Amino acid sequence: MKKILPGLFRRGLFALAGVAISAGAILALAAGQIAAQQKTVKIGFVSTFSGPTAVIGNDMRNSFELALDHLGRKMGGLPVEVIYEDDQQKPEVGKQKTEKLIQSDKVDFVVGYIWSNVLLASLKPVIDSKTFLISSNAGPHQIAGELCSPFFFSSSWQNDQTPQAMGHYMNQKGVKTLFLLGPNYTAGKDMLAGVAATFKGKVIGEELTKWPDQLDFSAELSKARAAKPDAIFVFYPGAAGVQFLTQYAQAGLKGKIPLYTVFTIDSLSLPRQGDLALGVPGVQQWVNDLPNAANKKYVADFKAKHKAYPSFYGAQTYDAANLINSAVVAVKGDLSNKDAMRDEMRKANYASVRGPYKYGNNHFPIQNFYLQDVVKDSEGMLTLKTVATIVENNRDRFHNECPMK
Amino acid sequence: MLLFLEQCLNGLQFGLLLFLLAAGLTLVFGIMDMVNLAHGSLYMLGAYFAATFAALTGSFVLGALLALIATLLVGMAVELIALRRLYGRDHLDHVLGTFGLILFFNELVRLIWGPAGMNLGLPPSLNTFVEILPGVPYPTYRLVIIAVALLVALFLYVVVMRTRIGMLIRAGASNREMVGALGINIKLLYTFVFGLGAALAGLAGLLQAPILTVQIGMGENILIVAFVVVVIGGIGSIRGAFIAAIIVGLIDTLGRSFLPDLLRLMLSKEAAATAAPALSSMLIYLLMAIILVLRPEGLFPASGK
Amino acid sequence: MNVSLDWRNIAVIVVLAVLVALPLYVAVTGDRFMLTLFTRIIILALAAMSLNLILGYGGMMSLGHAAYLGIGGYAVGILAHDGITSGFVQWPIVIAVSALFALVVGSMCLRTRGVYFIMLTLAFAQMAYYIVAGLARYGGDDGLTIYKRSQFAGLIDLSNKVQFYYLCLAFLFGGLYLSRRLINSRFGMVIQGSRSNDRRMQAIGFPTFRYRLAGFVIAGTMCGLAGALLANHTEFVSPAMMYWTRSVDLMVMVILGGMGSLFGPLFGAIALLVFEEALSQVTEYWQIILGPLLLLVVLFARGGIAGLLTSGRHG
Hints:
By secondary structure, chain A is α/β, with parallel strands linked by helices. Chain A folds into two domains: 41-157 and 289-366, Response regulator (Rossmann fold); 161-284, 3-Layer(aba) Sandwich (Rossmann fold), CATH 3.40.50.2300. Chain A has 13 helices and 14 strands. A two-stranded antiparallel sheet of chain B has the order 1-2. In chain B, helix 1 (2-32) packs across helix 6 (164-174), helix 1 (2-32) crosses helix 10 and helix 10 runs antiparallel to helix 11 (269-294). The chains are: A alpha/beta, B mainly alpha, C mainly alpha. The B-C interface holds B 29, 35, 82, 85-86, 89, 91-93, 95-97, 99-108, 110-111, 220, 224, 227-228, 231, 235, 273-279, 281-282, 285-286, 288-289, 292-293, 296 and C 55, 61, 63, 108, 112, 114-116, 118-120, 122-124, 126-127, 130-131, 133-137, 244-245, 248, 251-252, 255, 285-288, 290-295, 297-299.
């Protein structure tokens, strides 16, 4: 190369190429912003689309898209545009993506958020810009309490609610001593605190594991066995739930110490957990067989399209789309009328697939929780079935700390 | 006491897994004087290959064997195409060049296998437990990992200590120029050693896949721990890597399991809950720092430099 | 240094002019995201510049430089969390803590060389990582949101994006000036001399260890300040900002821009982050391009961008 091009010329060429690439890149960046100024409902969607928990994000996206299809892809007469962003399950990435949605795409709503730590990191820029955020999964106690905001709504639950219901159920079953296991992040701590809040027996051991990278639970399972509890309670969402059930069986604990779970066995993890999940109880605010019209339509259409049962992640996200729609319809597409949209959403005036529910002062649902069991459906596919209602119209235990009325 | 024994076994199993990863790393490091961050990528590829081939052939063992061969080939290809050109450069170039390879392989895996990660199921015969002591069932597969890793250690010992290639490897680790001067085809030796290291990394990756994970970036965390093992053991020393890996595995597992209780005896419950996880994660780095202060060349320096 | 119009100087002038004028462009187009992006670029350029001081000029291959970003960030975050938001308290503490950490780490690591230096700096950074990840009170692994940026008694409003941008730019210019003064001083000569031949420098009578340690501490402190800026910029700190791959990111900026060149880290930070942002809009698989590119730069363009821009002079 040196012999072909004289040094000075060659370097100049490289430099010019470098400058041209940079300039082109900046222009490409700028061009992206200018496009699409016509009136649409712009929704930013932040979830996990890569890594082992991408299945959850995809299920949420599928349900959101299905909801939009059911709505004719319009809300209050305006076409809907959704921008999906991958948070990689990392708080700092989720925050960056959220900021980009707010500042660069100037969205009207932000939806999604599987992980409580990602949501907590992303909350401030959304609230500061007076944009509505609908969490369709994560429900950290901070946002139910001191950090509650007029611009935040939950279409799912507050983290502690589900394990609290499980605590009630374990009391019914006469469990006296309990060993707790969960991942060491916001939601993991909330879940363990939630179960301890209603469980009347004695918690004789508690282990928090590194999240999300620790998937080897051998040391923790050994400790659990050595503690000889009546039961083990775990919270391991996504792929970790599959790992946990496998290792629990490999360690010879299955059938020896009963397992109680929240958010560990769902329609996404079931196919991989297989028979290991049989007989392990769980609690949820929504189950795919709830007998209301909206739910029947949702589950049937989802199954027809994706050849699988939707998960609670999907159901909550389907609800989020309809919640937003109710607000946009109420203001007839005038997206600047935020107060009216907020008033409408507080009524939860739409057909939720979990059945009717109400919003508390902190914009978290007041709702029922059901006991669910793993069964085989008519085609031999593993699925979840409602067994009983554990608590009715349950309200989270942090709403008093929220300054909103 | 039973719990302690069981945790020691858990630690041993983790340590031996680390050894498989560290053995390849230390060979490449010792002989080519090459810092290879992409070793973690080969670990990842091993797991992905195994999951793919096991699904294709329907056999776990066959899938694992094919995966080993595939990682060996990828390793040699990477050496021939890219890394060969980095020998003799300074470590900074190695760090950056191989970091580039990490990015490349992560994205390549995402392109080929998708972002969601994979599943490698065990045959039912391995998905059980053995009662190693009365009242202490232990997963069969973890015992298999221990056995395989010990066999590999033995194999490496024989290869390095008893064969001609091993002699060259040892000679290469202590004096590179001399081996070259003896008229040995050093390029071929390097490619072979790199392939061997890659296969070992692949083995570690596929062995852990059924109990842990097959996902993008899975090698980045454990790679650093493997580097700690290599440095503690002494760069280039297989024996050092073996002993250091077991030490690190035991310290990590026992620390994770007993440090919280130990600290609770001395500190308040709150303080212990804060300090324990941080301290148990830090232990191995502390160990490395102390060992480097006391023995700057690690426990078993390979070279006579 | 006499200024002549070679490619590099032209590029420097253009880049600096663009940086100074950027808020104007944003004011015209209303594209606030560009301001956010470039604030980030400038802060990371400052961090890369501090790494360049020890890596590029001193030959000290620290694989733990991101730890200082985290330490500076967490100093701001923790104080803000506990209600101390005055920058006049926060920032001196940032300087003190990062300098102290650099002093401790440096005095241990600088006794070793080569790969052992790499591994020791990495080990200390990992320890710092696990310490902050263990701070349950301050969010642990989840990180910590900063609800109020540093307050400077009305002198400057850090929540104002333009004011904050110019503050970061001022820090960058300060860093450039300081670097230039340092490199051309006797001090700079000693650490550069020590890189190529430490024994000779010692034989001449320079206590090179102390010089290198001082360089290490200055670099750490500079990076700690960058961390404080970054924390104010993102209003969020998490252990992830000190993970080892972040340290490599900083190294990549230095190498890409041109190691041991004053403006190299700035070029590198701009190139890497703009490349990343633009390419990630074109394809989500952008790293498959970046990875091999990095390898190519290492293999064939050791001087990085600054090296390519330099016309014949250095041959």
